[in-house]
Specification:
Blueprint: H1 2-22, H2 30-63, H3 67-72, H4 80-88, H5 90-101
Helix pairs in contact: 1-2, 2-4
Length: 103
């Protein structure tokens, strides 16, 4: 799981850097637009999966599958929250990293 956050952080940093290079000087809302696009890229593949799991959970409950096992699978989605927070912090961490490294 830590590799997921390392790769996500690197990807966010590269994406933010590209956004800054492409932005026009004085452009307003570039962080807001960038972050909305990153969250959308995270939610697009996840939302249908969660909907499928909800339908399966109802069906499996009705068939008699133990609820304890059904409740375990959605808990894996917890990684979306810290992943989104890390994405939101990319601008700040990128700026501090550049200052610290002197680039």
């Amino acid at each position: 799981m830590p590799a997921f956050f390392l790769v996500g952080g690197y990807s966010n940093g590269v994406s933010w850097d590209a956004t800054l290079r492409k932005a026009e000087p004085g452009q307003i809302g570039k962080y807001r637009d960038w972050f909305a696009s990153r969250v959308q890229r995270l939610i697009n593949p996840t939302f249908p999966l969660l909907m499928l799991w909800a339908v399966l959970a109802v069906i499996l409950t009705q068939v008699g599958f133990p609820r304890e096992q059904i409740r375990m699978a959605p808990a894996l989605g917890w990684a979306l929250v810290p992943g989104s927070i890390a994405g939101a912090a990319s601008e700040v961490t990128a700026a501090r990293g550049v200052d610290r490294l002197g680039s």
